[in-house]
Amino acid sequence: MSTAPCAALRALIFDVDGTLADTEGAHRDAFNEAFADAGFDWHWDEPTYVKLLAVSGGKERIAHWWRGVNDDMTVLDPAALDDTVQRLHDLKTAAYERRVREGAVSLRPGVPELIRAAHAAGLRLAIATTTSPINIAALLRAALGPDWRYLFQVVEDASTAPLKKPHPQVYRQTLQRLQRPAAECLAFEDSANGLAAARAAGLATVVTPNRFTAHHDFAGALRVLPTLAGVTLGDLRAWHAACEHAPA
Fold this sequence. Notes:
Blueprint: E1 4-5, E2 11-14, H1 24-37, H2 46-52, H3 58-69, H4 78-101, H5 111-120, E3 124-128, H6 133-144, E4 154-156, H7 169-178, E5 185-189, H8 192-200, E6 204-207, E7 223-224, H9 233-242, E8 244-245
Parallel strand pairs: 2-3, 2-5, 3-4, 5-6, 6-7
Antiparallel strand pairs: 1-8
């Protein structure tokens, strides 16, 4: 693939779960609470959940698990199955929101400082995630305050980009709405699926793994860092200027 030098850095695009905040432990607990409340005898321990994270999207994860534990199941009424998956996901979302309100989730080190510094410097900020808008709002309202939405010019989520990562739909739509080429942007991710989606959209990507994704392959990332603690806009501009941008 041919490459071209990166342009000046104009925008930062953030994934949410695992990237802005280490949310997956709270998500797992919320799934298990939803299963119990609905009368299912399912329980996802951490090793199981790590494997399930290869499936992007909460409803998709539930449906994947259901098919796995009932591999001989014949679906006579797909609509009824979809309704049950939706009900489980609604219960899970409510349980996750409560955990966020109770302070069980916070932004990862360096994230709030970098967001506010970028906003003050005039960089455009965006969110590109396949989680639900309810989950995003619950997290960022608690972490950044009720005016969090004014920090981000673009928010693309599961309601606007139904094709899950590693499909690049959410990043392509984010770039379109930002009205910036990929060469002027940096993406921030925590997983191999997220990195693949960002790279497929032509984005240089900084990866900050967590305990659920530390084993992933991050070949092709611009940087792989334990956290964003201590990372400055000057660092991002220097890394971005030195990279080679792969056209989507």
